[in-house]
Amino acid sequence: MPVNRRKKNSRLRGSHTHGWGSKKKHRGSGNRGGFGMAGTGKRSDNKKPWVLKVYGTSYFGKRGFNLPREVKKEVKAINIQDLPDRKEINITEMGYNKLLSKGRISKPVKITVESCSAKAKAKIEKAGGQIILPE
Predict the structure, then answer these.
(1) What is the distance between the alpha carbons of residues 108 and 121, in angstroms, rounded to a whole number?
(2) In a domain, 69, yes or no
(3) Does position 89 have pLDDT exceeding 90, yes or no?
(4) Distance CA 77, CA 91 (A)
(5) Do residues 123 and 105 touch, judged by C-beta distance below 8 A?
């Protein structure tokens, strides 16, 4: 007899039935096929007529919460170190919508952008520059 024998349930993980044959066997509910709404055919495309009659078509199919695509706004950001060397820069025309603070800036620059991080705004203003945000 082996000393360190693994338990049966650890060996049967992922086996779908844990060695009891059919799915309905060994579920502890006798011969009735399960508890509650078990056997209503939601999983294997066996739509039972009585389920459709009692619950309607709303019982089947996916339900949940999905954000519309318009709500999810894609952020395209640019860092201070990647800005071109000019006195006035319009970042929105360049295709970006956010300014981030990575890098250094020494000259005063006037920047037009949709949004920026607080740290980036502080760096620009410390160098004597100005950030123009939309109202």
Answers:
(1) 12
(2) no
(3) yes
(4) 9
(5) yes
